[in-house]
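Supplementary Methods, section 5.1.

A reviewer requested that the exact input to the structure prediction be made available. We therefore reproduce it here, unchanged from the version used in the analyses.
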Amino acid sequence: SFGIFAAEDEQPVTLTLAFAPNWSRYVERHRFHESQEVLEPDHLGRPRLRFRLRITQDLLMWIRGFGDEVEVLGPKSLVKAMGAKRR
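The structure derived from this sequence is encoded token-by-token as follows.
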């Protein structure tokens, strides 16, 4: 459901997230977006998700809701923006 309120001129990006290991079951069992891809856990055992979508306020709020339990791995512009909001 992310992107319902996206501006039409907003271009989709590839978003990759890494969650804390304790979120593994949740990440594997939930479908958040039609473009969602469950990736292999990284070297730290963190489950990862990849999406192809538009960056919207509802998406940003969803990501922020995980607090320190999620890391934005890409795109770089969103990594930077999310890091600035945490400070």
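The mean pLDDT is 87. These observations are discussed further in the main text.
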